[in-house]
Amino acid sequence: MTPDEILSRVLYKDQDVIVLDKPAGLAVHAGPNSPDHLELYLGALAFGWAEMPKLAHRLDRDTSGCLILGRHAKAIKRLGKMFEHRRVEKVYWSVSHGSPAADSGTVDAPLLKVSARGQGWRIKVDPAGQPSITDWSVLGRSDGLSWIEWRPRTGRTHQIRIHAQYLGCPLLGDAYYGPDPEPKVRLHLLARAVAFPALAPSKDPVRVTAPPPEHMVEALRRCGWSPAS
Length: 229
Known about the structure:
This protein is α+β, with helices and mostly antiparallel strands and 229 residues long. The chain has helices at 3-7, 73-84, 159-167, 214-222, and strands spanning 10-13, 17-22, 54-55, 64-70, 89-97, 104-108, 111-116, 120-125, 133-142, 145-152, 189-196, 206-209. The protein has one domain (3-222): Pseudouridine synthase (2-Layer Sandwich). The longest helix is centred in the middle third of the chain and has 12 residues, at 73-84.
């Protein structure tokens, strides 16, 4: 990525927040396996301000779409309270292997983080885990794939990926929780939209939608999506 490429992915900006269309494959934080990460480009997103924006939440490296940043300390604090009190509405799209029998429903399955020596960590459904709830609806089906919209009520790590697996419809390209141990395609998961109250009381609520990334377009089209969707 370059600073100009990051700037071209700004979906919304006001004096308090920025909503960025995060590209798939870009980690949001530095790490041993993340030499390229979003924190390297936050200076470009300052737009001349002395203070760089900060992440209000996070997305997995391989998830693309709407990522909210606060432009100053007060904004970060208020956004944090909005997430805590579930006032931020998040909508995700996936292309999944298989299809649920119903057209819509809710997954209510607690999630637990487990570690194994030398194997890192994973998330699994476990009664001892944290409460995790996701509403879902099928938007299209074709050739063993389904286009599903997910609306998480909670914000657990890998929640949609695990709930999709639990539903019997693991995400296309999911190397950890799906049938693609060495996928030839990227993870088909898009943070499609976010909506939250504007931090300025006089403004309308912020509602932002991200376009499907290039690697998801073909599978979405097969399931009935069109650019007008």
